[in-house]
């Protein structure tokens, strides 16, 4: 996968507001909808809303031998950002967001 393809997906994911607190996400949140939409059709996707901002997305294809476990929430936006925190900014070969 090349860097352009990675950035193509990184932008929409950074735009998903997953700040914790307030942990205001559920199974219908934009990050889960985006992932479900862009995965190839051969993936089985299960999204379980456990309540209180706890959601599990499990995507599998075939008989997997490898598991990737990702943590999706972020710290709250605070003062001092030089770039928009919920928007992908690419400058001088680096990505912020």
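Sequence proposed for the structure above (97 residues):
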């Amino acid at each position: 996968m090349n860097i352009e393809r990675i950035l193509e997906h990184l932008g929409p994911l950074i735009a998903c507001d997953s700040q914790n607190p307030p942990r205001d996400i559920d199974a219908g949140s934009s990050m889960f909808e985006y992932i479900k939409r862009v995965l190839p059709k051969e993936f089985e996707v299960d999204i379980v809303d456990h309540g209180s901002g706890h959601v599990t997305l499990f995507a599998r294809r075939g008989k997997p031998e490898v598991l990737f476990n990702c943590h999706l929430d972020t710290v709250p936006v605070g003062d001092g950002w030089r770039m928009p925190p919920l928007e992908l900014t690419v400058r001088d070969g680096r990505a912020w967001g």
